[in-house]
Amino acid sequence: MTQKKPIRDLIESCITKVEEHYKLKELYQRLNQGINVEEVLKETVEDYKEKMEKYILEVLEEIEKYCEYRESLHGDQKKEAEEELCECEKDLYCTIAELFELYHFFRELENLSKEQINEAVSIPVEIIYNVVLKLKGIEEKNQ
Q1: What is the DSSP string of the chain?
Q2: 14-70 pLDDT, tens per residue?
Q3: Global confidence as pTM
């Protein structure tokens, strides 16, 4: 029996930070330096939230699919499905880790006003909150 790795080990080795993650951090870094990026920032934040929520829900759907599919398999096919499931779970952990990393990045921006920092940290929090609400809705439908 293989021993499962702690989530932290999985996450630290696979954080890939999607392009949108970098763009958002770069815009906030520029704002932190006193450069006016407010108009671009608002549009980028909405785009980022939409893409991240969509991506997380897609990964969750894949996990659910592989869980159901795995139950009907045997032998090597079952092992392959379990490996695919593990990869999907790793993607999910990494995405969530990126959101927490983004949250901490925003908290460390020293030159922003308290209001700007609160607005920034609400981005990853809102994404996770919305995904949880959607999952709760999906779960209630399935019951």
Answers
A1: -PPPPPHHHHHHHH----HHHHHHHHHHHHHHTT---HHHHHHHHHHHHHHHHHHHHHHHHHHHHHHHHHHT--HHHHHHHHHHHHHHHHHHHHHHHHHHHHHHHHHT-SSS-HHHHHHHHHHHHHHHHHHHHHHHHHHHHH-
A2: 555 567 888 899 999 999 999 999 889 999 999 999 989 888 888 888 888 888 888
A3: 0.77
